[in-house]
Amino acid sequence: MVLRWLLALLVVATLLGLFANARWMTRRLALDGRGPGQGLQLIDDRGSGGASRAELVEGAAGGPIAMRCEIRRGFEWPFCELQIEMLGHDLNLGAFSHIRLWLHAEGPTLDGGPAQVRVFLRNFDPAYSAKGGAIDLKPHEVVLAPGAQPVPVELRLSQFMVSSWWAQSHPLPVPLMGPQLDRVRVFSLSTGGQVAPGLHLIRLERAELVGNWVAPETFRLGLVGLWMFSLLAYLAWEAWAMRGRLRHSMRRSRMLEQMALRDPLTRIANRDGLNRALDLLMQVQGDMAFPLSVVFVDADHFKRINDEHGHEVGDQVLTLLAQTLRANLPRDDLLARWGGEEFVIVMPQTPVEEAVAVAERLRQVLARTEWPAGLKVSASWGVAQASALGELDRALHEADQAMYRAKQGGRDRVISA
Question: Taking the CA of residue 415 as centre, how many other CA atoms within 13 Å lie in the half-sphere pointing to its CB?
């Protein structure tokens, strides 16, 4: 009953917390060019050889910011731009999710449609902005027609994409490709790409960045921590029951070890012992044992070792090989001598990628081992995975075939099926 009340209380607290984080923990930052650390400037295409002219429309103190632009022919892409620059600092927009714009635009267009505005967020990074010029700031843009949108226009920061024309002229390494809004230096509004010669007006009544004082990810992480802390009492009780199940599992594991039939030379399980061990493993772990990986190991040039150094040295090599494998495998992994110089490792709860990494580590261990008679002994390795009990025989066959491919490929290597 106590657990039910605790669960209900946590559910209510979680729902209230999520609502509060979304509605009552909102932070806003005005972008008006007049606030501390902000500067306002106008640019046009005259710096690029054009003839367009931008001018600030004077209004009441604290009123809207307006730019009048006379677009003239003379430049391939005529434009005027109203820029709000961060002075002495850059904006990290990681704490914000949206930008809201109370925006108006008017003027003739080539297609006869409503006037468009390009909204830019220009980011600084010393990797590509070393020259310090505005052209080297990475522009992220959204193009919209304010007259066709509800007021205010709300844009998600995730909608801003790097301008294609800038990306083509500023090739970047892969880590720097894509949007970056951690050091925004300029917020600007520019005439659109369909402007026609004539008089244009862009009026910004208000612009603000919107986000949460506590990032949703951080807040949710805190809620997860609350859940974890509140459930400690329940987990303590569950641990008591788990210990009983664990003791039972350990007894079964010891039985598995005791019942496994052993190879008389290497003192590890033989093929029949491996089969018995697998049966007990399935009884103890069942489907939890999967994915299960199988590794076949075959000593390279073992016949040559027997022919040149005798069977006694060969037996010493096999014994040391088995001991080395066993010493470098977790206790839960099964190791058996399959026959001759061939060994099998069964790794429960291990995907094939992890098994390949273990096999590669073991291969390197063999290379560092001191062998009898000063020999250099290596092995060929084949790895396969079974995802269910019915795939175990197939995995054994595929691992065996992969090991033979390792032999044919030059030995002393790991091949995955």
Answer: 22
CB 113 within 8 A of CB 225: no
Of 293, 294, 321, 290, give the one whose Cα is nearest residue 305.
Answer: 321
**Range with the poorest average pLDDT among 12-16, 18-22, 320-324:** 18-22
Q: Is 312 helix (H, G, I), strand (E, B) or coil?
A: helix
Q: Tokens for 178?
A: 């894509």
Q: Is residue 352 one of the residues assigned to a domain?
A: yes
**Tens digit of each residue's pLDDT (9 = 90 or more) over 343-371:** 999 999 999 999 999 999 999 999 999 99
The H-assigned helical ranges of 260-351 are 271-285, 302-309, 311-327
49 with 130, same domain: the answer is yes
Q: DSSP letters along 259-282, please?
A: HS-B-TTTSSB-HHHHHHHHHHHH
Tally of domains within the chain:
2
Neighbours of 200 (CB within 10 A): 26
What single-letter DSSP state applies at residue 371?
A: P
Rounded to whole angstroms, the Cα distance separating 347 from 332 reads 7
| Residue 297, pLDDT score | 97
Is 337 inside any structural domain?
A: yes
Say if 239 falls within a structural domain: no
User: Is residue 260 predicted with pLDDT exceeding 60?
Assistant: no
Tokens linked to 253 = 């594991």
Q: Which two tokens stand for residue 376?
A: 């250099």
243 pLDDT higher than 70 = yes
pLDDT of residue 60: 62
Residues 208 and 269 in one domain: no
Which pLDDT score is estimated for 414?
97
Distance of CA 346 to the CA centre of its chain: 31
What share of the chain in percent tops pLDDT 90? 59
Whole-number Cα distances in Å, 409 to 77, 405, 406, 412: 62, 6, 5, 9
Task: Let me know: does 373 contact 314? Beta carbons within 8 Å.
Answer: no
As a whole number of angstroms, the distance between CA 248 and CA 88 comes to 67
Q: Which domain holds residue 49?
A: 26-213
CB 205 within 8 A of CB 104: yes
- Has this prediction a pTM greater than 0.90? no
For 171, 184, 185, 186, the CA distances from 127, given in Å and listed in that order, are 11, 14, 15, 17
